[in-house]
Specification:
The complex is a heterodimer of chains A (268) and B (73). Chain A is of the alpha+beta class. Chain A contains 6 helices and 9 strands; from the N terminus they run βαββααβααβββαββ. In chain A, strands 5-6-7-9-8 form a 5-stranded mixed barrel. By secondary structure, chain B is mainly beta. The relative contact order of chain B is 0.19. Classes of the chains: A alpha+beta (268), B mainly beta (73). At the A-B interface, loops of A face loops of B.
């Protein structure tokens, strides 16, 4: 790790550093204070990563103390997709024409309501062969900000994408960099290029570290341009919804961009 | 014999629980996460509607309630 970055783990130092971070007081989209376990500050680019203990509520790690270490040990190595739920849809890229959105709010407003998708006829299956339904045959391009990210047990990177800090109301949506399909799959090359671009961004920042099973939050939020296909997360239509607990109340839909087919991250 | 209905003065009427209230705005500042909501109670009617949003959220330092054992008599 280059010398221009510093990682802090002492809770009192974290609190003091947070208080001194420019623009972090009462900023939207930050994690709860007691969820921050450490923070990495890169003075060279004025960028801070807040490492937390927040996980999606449906993950094994969320079951209680002691489960996190076990879940971390089970995280897949490499980049292969490790899940089964709606695998066919998650790893496919829609052939639809790309629609442009300048804001996450406009993208969310364009989606079919969750309740209609849950009552979809024919019912959206959650098995590995479940393909995109008509409403999911859409490609989008959106200009937004990355507030947080994690790497889930199925090897997808979950990106929590939101609006400009000055925009109201505050809202976020999950967009996922999928784990990779088999090399023979039609989408392999594009998904690998996209995943590599995400990795390269963190490599280019002193102290930059890819997110793990628990959510990392970014200060300031990272400006991002995302292309991808729309996907309805039927697997989490009931029970715990996706998202870090600190931001979940402002995530109005379980629609996702999945997979992300192009990502351009700009240093804050 | 038919029961006679007593008229209550408006001041003595108990507030009635309305069956449906205005739709919740999940993005309103201070709202709980949608998946934590276990029920919504709507009190009053017309313009003066008050909603109680029941959730499963607890302070994390709270201990789960111990089961109360009844003493055998």
């Amino acid at each position: 790790m280059p010398k221009s970055s510093k990682t802090i783990t002492n809770p009192q130092t974290i609190e003091m550093t947070m208080a001194a971070l420019p623009g972090a007081t009462h900023r939207k989209g930050l994690p709860a204070k007691d969820s921050i376990t450490s923070m990495t500050t890169s003075a060279a680019v004025g960028f801070t990563i807040l490492h937390t203990n927040e996980v999606d509520g449906y993950e094994e790690a969320a079951q209680g103390p002691g489960f996190l270490a076990a879940a971390k040990a089970k995280l897949p190595k490499g980049d292969d997709f490790g899940g089964t739920a709606r695998k066919a849809a998650k790893l496919s890229i829609s052939a639809a024409k790309t629609e442009n959105f300048k804001d996450v709010k406009a993208l969310i407003a364009s989606l079919v309501p969750d309740a209609k998708m849950i009552a979809h006829k024919p019912k959206i299956g959650t098995g590995p062969t479940s393909k995109r339904v008509k409403e999911e045959e859409r490609n989008i391009h959106v200009t937004a900000f990355m507030y947080a990210a994690s790497r889930e047990a199925d090897n997808d990177f979950h990106l929590i994408i939101g609006r400009d800090l000055s925009a109201t109301p505050e809202m976020y949506m999950t967009m996922e960099l999928s784990g990779l399909p088999a090399k023979t799959d039609a989408s392999f090359a594009q998904l690998k290029t996209t995943r590599d671009a995400f990795k390269a961004f963190f490599k280019s920042i002193p102290g930059g570290k890819l997110p793990g099973l628990t959510y990392d939050f970014y200060h300031p939020p990272v400006p991002v341009q995302i292309d991808g296909s729309l996907f309805f997360d039927m697997t989490h239509a009931t029970g715990q919804r996706p998202g870090p607990p600190s931001l979940k109340s402002r995530m109005p839909v379980i629609w996702e961009v999945h997979p992300i087919t192009k990502i351009v991250l700009k240093k804050p | 014999m038919a029961k006679s209905k007593k008229k209550q003065s408006p001041g003595k009427r108990r507030p009635k629980k309305a069956t449906a209230g205005p739709p919740l705005d999940p993005l309103r500042t201070g709202m709980p996460a949608l998946d934590s909501i276990t029920g919504v109670e709507t009190l009053g009617k017309g313009r003066k509607v008050f909603q109680i949003i029941h959730t499963n959220e607890v302070d994390e330092y709270e201990k789960p309630r111990a089961k109360v054992r009844r003493k055998k008599t």
